[in-house]
Amino acid sequence: MADYKSIIETALADAVGHSVEISVDTHLIQDDVIDSLDSAIFLLNVEKAAGVKLSEQDVDEKDLFKVSNLVAFLES
Amino acid sequence: MKLETRLEVPQRGSRDYLQGGDILRSIFEEFSKHRDTADIADCRLRFSSLSHTLPTLLTWPEGEPAPAGALSARLSIGLRDGERIIGGLRDTGAPLLSRIEGFERDVNAVTAVDGQTALSAPVEGADLIEQIVFTIKFLHNTVLPLKAGRWAVVEFNLLRYLPREGWGSVAADIESISGNNRITETRVRVGKETIGSVRFTALV
User: Fold this and answer.
1) φ, ψ for residue A71 (rounded to 5)?
2) Radius of gyration over every alpha carbon of chain A, rounded to an integer in angstroms
3) Assign residue B13 a region: left if phi > 0, alpha if psi is -120 to 50, beta otherwise?
4) Partner B, chain A 17-76, Cβ-Cβ below 8 Å
5) Which residues contact B20 (CB under 8 A, 6 or more apart)?
6) Which of B183, B187, B199, B203 is most worth mutating to test chain A (most A CB atoms within 10 A of its CB)?
7) Which residue among A36, A37, A43 sits closest to B178, beta carbon to beta carbon?
8) Is A43 in Cβ contact with B48 (below 8 Å)?
9) Which of B197, B95, B202 lies closest to B156, judged by CA?
């Protein structure tokens, strides 16, 4: 199984320009890890690395900016 | 190379915000006051927020800490001798200085040349960076479903420096579209050469 947390960390580092320490409890927006433009790049990075599409509905309804939710979504 | 200087950005067209291409061109012009732009091997400019005011350009050698304070964009310029210059933009709040009207009409002259995935942009009077931005914006507004939003540059990732003149036609292919249709990655070719990619985001 792919290491989705590692994929998220790499996508995040590219989006914000430096490595960021996160946990499964981190919420990337509410914890001010990324802003709106960075979040768009972050989602595109995750999609490319994981080979998935993240629709706006999924991002909103499943709260995919919370790391634990995004990992669970990618694993499903 | 350490710099801290306010960029002079002559804005073109009727936009009420600075376009990424305006800023990139101004950065290259500021750079040319200190080094030969032919020294530039690659360039990456990433915006974190869009600005309606003139920015200050800050640069510092790679490895040194970034200056304190929020940056609205991040810059990385690689030189042919191996040196890398890191930088960023800081909002000043200073109003835009000048505006050149007429470009919006010219953009309409852009035409599709390869189905719906590639365009050539012979916009008279525009420089190469403007040609690239015009081409990609036209491409996005033509082929993507989200037409109500404004498409804005969020990142230039240029694998090589752009010549000021003597370049061929510009073509663009959208390589990736995010699942929410809000950000794209577009490969840019000048003549027959791929010179990098540009990421656009849709502001709604």
Assistant:
1) -60, -45
2) 11
3) left
4) 17, 35-38, 40-41, 43-44, 47-48, 52-56, 58-59
5) B45, B47, B133, B152, B153, B154, B156
6) B183
7) A43
8) no
9) B197
B24 is written with which tokens? 């990139």
Q: Are B157 and B151 in contact (CB under 8 A)?
A: no
Interface residues from chain B to A (CB-CB < 8 Å)? 46-50, 74, 154-155, 176, 178-183, 185, 199, 201
Read off φ and ψ for residue A2, nearest 5 degrees.
-65, 150
* Chain segment A19-63, per-residue pLDDT in tens: 889 999 999 999 999 987 889 899 999 999 999 999 989 999 999
Q: What pLDDT, in 10s, does the model give residues B50-88?
A: 777 889 999 998 888 888 888 889 999 999 999 999 999
